[in-house]
Amino acid sequence: MAPNKPLDNDDEENGLQAVVFADSFNSRFKPFTATKPRCLLPLVNVPMLAWTLESLAAAGIGHVFLFTCTHADQIKEWLRNSHFSSAHSTLTVTPIVSTTSVSAGDAIRELDAKQLIRTDFVLISGDVVSTVDIHRVVAEHKERRKSNKDAIMTMVVKRVGASHRLRPPAESPVFVISPENHQLHTYSTIAHPSTTKSATHKRISIPEESLEAGELQIRNDLADCYIDICAVDVLLLFTENFDYQDLRHDFINGILTSDLLGKTIHVHAIEDEEGGYAARVMDSRSYDAISQDIISRWTYPMVPDECMPGSDRLLHHRGHRYYGKQGVDVAESARVGVCSVLGSHCTVAAHSTLDRSVLGQGVAVGENTQLSHSYIWNKTSIGSGCSIYQSIVADGVVIEDDVSLHTGCFVGHGVRLLKGTSLPPYTRVGSERWSEDGVDDGSDEEHSNHLDKKRAAILGPSSTAYLWPSDKVDMEVEDVDSSDDDEEAALSMRYSRIGMSAGTAAAHSTSSLSTISGGESDESEEDDDELHHATDNLTLENAGKVGAAADFAHECTQSLERAFEEGHTSENAAIELKTLRMASNVPLGEVRKVVVDFCLSKVETEAGEGVQAYKAVEDVLGRWAPLVVEMTKEDQTHTVLLAQQFCAIHHASHANIFLAVLRALYEYEIVTEDAFFAWYKLDQARADGGIKSLWDKSRRFIEALLEAESESEESESE
Amino acid sequence: MPEDKQKKINQKSERRKQKVEARGGGEKPEHMAQPFQPSQPSQHPAQSSARSDSGSVLSHSQALQNTLDSPLKHLHKAPIPSVKPEHVHPQISRLGALLSNFSIVGANARTLALMSALKLVIGSYNTPPGTTLSRNLLSVISPQITHLESCRPKSISNGSAIRWLKLQIANIDPDMDDNDARNHLCMLIDYYVRDRITLAGDEIIKNTLTKLSSTTHSNILVYARSSIIEKTLIEAKKAGKLFSVTLLDAKPLNEGKNLLSTLTEAGIDCTYSHLTALQSLLPNISFALLGAHAILANGSLYSRAGNASVALLSKLHNVPVYTLAESYKFVDRVMLDSITTNELAPEAFKLDIQGLGPNVREESLLYDVTPAKFIDGVISEVGIHPPTSIPALMFRGRV
Amino acid sequence: MAIEINGNQFRGKSRTTLSQITQLSDKLRRRKIVGSNQTALETALLLRLVVSNAKFSSIEELLAIVEAVGQSLLDSQPKELAIINVTRKVLKLIREEYQQALRASNLDSSEPALRSSFMTPKLYDVGLPKDQMNDSTAQSSSYQFQKSNSDIDDFNRKSTTVMIQAIQEVIDEIETTYEQVSKNASNHIKSTDVILTIGKSKTAESFIKSAATTSGGLMVYVAENAPLFNGKDMVKSLEQVKGVKVIMISDSTIYSLMPRITKVVIGTHVVLSNGGIIAETGTYLTSAIAGMHATPVICVTGQFKITSNKDNRESGEFSSSDYVNSGKMIKYDDGRVVDRVDVGVPYYEYVKPEMITVFITNDGEYPPMLIRRLIDEEMSD
Lengths: 718, 399, 381
Hints:
The complex is a heterotrimer.
Chain A: E1 17-21, H1 32-35, E2 42-43, E3 46-47, H2 48-58, E4 63-68, H3 72-81, E5 92-97, H4 104-114, E6 121-125, E7 128-130, H5 134-147, E8 151-159, E9 172-178, E10 183-190, E11 217-219, E12 222-230, H6 233-240, H7 247-257, E13 264-270, E14 278-280, H8 284-295, E15 314-317, E16 321-324, E17 329-330, E18 335-336, E19 340-342, E20 347-348, E21 353-355, E22 358-359, E23 364-365, E24 370-372, E25 375-376, E26 381-382, E27 387-389, E28 392-393, E29 398-399, E30 404-405, E31 410-411, E32 416-417, E33 422-423, E34 428-430, H9 445-459, E35 466-468, H10 470-475, H11 486-495, H12 529-536, H13 540-543, H14 548-566, H15 570-584, H16 588-601, H17 611-623, H18 625-632, H19 636-649, H20 651-654, H21 658-667, H22 673-681, H23 690-697, H24 699-717
Parallel strand pairs in A: 1-4, 1-6, 4-5, 8-13, 16-19, 17-20, 18-21, 19-22, 20-23, 21-24, 22-25, 23-26, 24-27, 25-28, 26-29, 27-30, 28-31, 29-32, 30-33, 31-34
Antiparallel strand pairs in A: 2-3, 6-12, 7-14, 8-12, 9-10, 9-11, 10-13, 15-16, 34-35
Helix pairs in contact in A: 4-6, 14-15, 14-16, 15-18, 16-19, 17-21, 19-21, 19-22, 19-23, 22-24
Chain B: H1 2-23, H2 60-66, H3 90-100, H4 107-123, H5 133-151, H6 156-170, H7 178-209, E1 218-223, H8 227-238, E2 243-249, H9 256-265, E3 270-274, H10 278-281, E4 287-291, E5 294-295, E6 301-304, H11 307-316, E7 321-324, E8 360-363, E9 367-370, E10 377-380, E11 383-385, H12 390-395
Parallel strand pairs in B: 1-2, 1-4, 2-3, 4-7, 7-10
Antiparallel strand pairs in B: 5-6, 6-9, 10-11
Helix pairs in contact in B: 3-4, 3-5, 4-6, 4-7, 7-8
Chain C: H1 14-29, H2 36-53, H3 59-76, H4 82-107, H5 130-139, H6 149-175, H7 177-182, H8 185-188, E1 194-198, H9 202-215, E2 218-223, H10 231-238, E3 244-249, H11 254-257, E4 263-266, E5 270-271, E6 277-280, H12 283-292, E7 297-300, H13 335-340, E8 341-343, E9 348-351, E10 358-361, E11 364-366, H14 371-378
Parallel strand pairs in C: 1-2, 1-4, 2-3, 4-7, 7-10
Antiparallel strand pairs in C: 5-6, 6-9, 10-11
């Protein structure tokens, strides 16, 4: 078969270094991570850290600094027993323990303090699976550094399709890149339209400076691999900016938006198979996706039967089924579906079915049990008549008979689920009581009573396990844009869970008789009803209006408020409005509407009819006449119409002053007679309802105008 | 008297000739073998399987030189001169363009497209004075067909349909006025399409579903893409049959990919692999379904290149092979091997020989002939028969 | 006789030896070394190093060490059966050479030094008389003999030199496989032949090139062989020979053209003891079609590919198919499809012995039914 490029093991002078974060600094995998470090959780029966270290070793990295915080001793223990510690491993791993870091930023600052790293290094998370030729990316990076000392980081990203299972629907990253030098201009996350109502999460903003770059690619089809090639400067930057916590949101956005530093970030995009595979297990959703990828051999040669030293030997069978080499016993009537893994010494009893699931070593499955899209770790036993769907079950768990786990459940280490338990979707169960920060303060009596009741209801009164809340725990995440509402965070967390999908794909009947022109296979085709609706009005023409118009009105009103209150001059106010208008690119009609509406709303309407009414109007329109003139001079007829409409809408308060308004408009030369006449003739001015009555009322005014005109003509002709 | 006898014999042979022609046997096959070199650059809409040919800089004569010793020499012939544009109806011209850049591929699709285009031609036809519709229309239609042939060699199913149409035209009562005649012909075409393709398709689906069960799981082997097989599988899924599909694909056309997306949309479990991987998949297969371009007089199957390999290997592993074919695809011809009548892959689908020298060329065929012995059953609207029974069905005038 | 490999078994630069073993294991596991030829070569080189650095007091110890090394390599990559072949061959050589040395020194009891009376036995002398074979096996039981310890060590060290020479011959054999196989190509292929080959096999390539050069011209069809499409590489190297006309065809066209093909030439990954082969996917298809048309199928291979592995490979055990990157079939980013479709890209497949007409190896031509005999004669038990 086609070999990978040959390794050059003797590359001593450029001994490539890598920093691996064994701690992800979030708690998406609680309760599993309460007792075990996240990076040692098994991914297709091999600890995640092992995949990462293998990826690095295969890519030719020589030395790794393994940064550990929580459960550091477990990691060190594992490391000591792994083949990476053998004297002849090509990869040397140095664990660094830190007790004080709570974020990636802290970790990097500590690294910098230790002064261990002198050259460009690879920064990677301890839960990444990759077959990328990192050497090549590093070479690219170094090449770039030669000519541009400010290129401090290269991110590795992989192209995935729009509806790909690896994409987090709630916060998919958007990269704005300039194609010739792969420089990153903007990084932001955007939510799938069906998952959020908020307009701000459907749009990104691009700074003006980037537009000078000439050609820009705006890409939403790239998945972040969390493999970064960093220059040594990165460490320094973190130390200098000690509020940088998160690599992506803080650091990258910080660098990109800071002009002073002038540093640039670049992107290495893997467009197709040749470039390799790279993905990070960020949450249970990606855990599921990456497990399936490994099983389906997209990550070749990092596949389950790869025979990693110290791991279970698996044999590959038809349909991507993997069986442990020893002691696997599957009953005759049991059915093992495609893409499944059964570790050594597993037993599956009669009439049970396994579908796209992974069993660790020594797992016993009872009769008539259905397992689907689930991940069961070592030495767990599952009783008869159970149904487990899209869930993760940890080591040493005993699940008794007739238990059902619905979507997205996590069952922690050593838990015993009693007979007949039915866990509602997204339930987490741990063997110890949950408390924030692990400290049981016992302060909130009522709350814990409530929890106990819930626990008894779901787990059964004699249960020794505890419910762990999924929402609260999920909330404390730092990977989400921190300016979000709580609602947003919850939403994105929800979508980051296993089993959650952003709407179901509409079943298109795309069959045509012609054998080659087959329906849609273009990725941009909508495959989601909700998405379709959401983007229905999003044509090029409407693009300016959606959201922008509403925002402009708001901004404009605010500006006018300020002007009124602070007593600005008309000219200044006009200038401000004009700038606003240009920035928002709103049509003139909008501006006029806002101005007219605002002015009219400012009129004191209590005054009643007649002279007082006119006085009230005069106060406003008179004072601000130049402004109004300036903003409305292009189309005066429209202005009158707008006034009419406003008065009609605010019938109760403004119907009486309409005449006064007309008069004021005339007196202050905001609107000419001709415009009035033109308005009077408009159909819209005569529309039914309130408008018509106002139109009727204005008859006198028009007549008066006519008289005035003929008088002045007469006087002229005299 | 000998003259009478002679006359009788002549009449008999005339009648026989007509019968044979009606069944589609008498036509000369020479046009079959000529590929068209499309004059416009082929911009193919099909996705990842398309490939623009930028490597070959050989002129046509040079290429011809290269092929002198090839067994496929006769397929490399120079293009036949096309018909003058003023004789070609715009719809036909459009259809020709679609055919030559392979936007419309597959026997049923091409027949349907041809029939609908001819309907439009007939619809805009007016008999010039001094001649009858039944004679003149034929002379209008012939250049259309010739033009289409210059875009892409005529498909065998097209041949049957055209022969049928010509017969209908010839039988038009000369007294019928133009309007009625046109309507009548269009109606006949509609019936033909409805009966021989649509309804036939439904019958075939019904017959095929008897091979599937709702309680026992079957694994069906499918190769490339056949419109009738696609419909059958989707209907089977709707009818609640229990099955999964193993789909094989191969160059030059890579049609299987499109079938794959259609089937996955319909929620069918699919395994997708390449023709070369067939052996590893066969132990798991219940039976194979092959599409057909034509069923020959000796029961052989003329279909997309690769089907013969599938049938051969299936036979070696005792996997039953069925082919789905509407009866209008039955023809009264025999092909002795897969080369004499065939078609070379068009420009857009040629294999990639970029950067290679003048001693290298590529050849890919679009069709092959599967011997009857590899096929266990032909599923058509008249039922499921062994392939060798097909000519008997035809001779008895059942189809 | 599975023992653990550790530093004590090697003298001097033990770290180097151990690290070399680990490195080769890792390379095999991570698929940096792929293919029988490369694997066999690397294994032989490593075993040579092992033998030259090993510390052993009896021949059994050395054999145990070599076997352990071979086993550990195989464990890291069970699909490369060439490892077993080379290991077994080396084991057999060690025994043979040791026996020879023993006999030579026994005859002359004063000096354990090895003299010219020591004959390096011909490795691949198929026609070796039966009695000589029996001779060495008869001696195999008595390794121990009455000599002082220092003499034994001295003797061991010196016999090591000869063993290394023998292993070197194995290495040479592997390296010269291509030339040896192609030597008599023109006996089988003439200029009027029309050859079909699939994918890329270096052995087949040199075979065809040799035939073409001798006959001054040849027409060759090369099937692309999905999904790796390495047919193009084959075409690229074949077209350089003067007078060769190369035509690339798709896999679906093979059937149509087979009646015009006179001979099929294929390479292989492994040759099994029953005469069947494990070869690149696509070979079975071609062989079946050739069989139907009574076209002879020539399998060209080096003898190091012949394995006597007792595993039941004849049943076409799935694992040996070595499924590679699914990305070769479908693009990973075709999201909708990736999720719901099972994609399998097997790299190897099993071809029955009845489908092969002849094996042309670097040392002779054999019909499939004689492979078992060949194994019995060549390899150790």
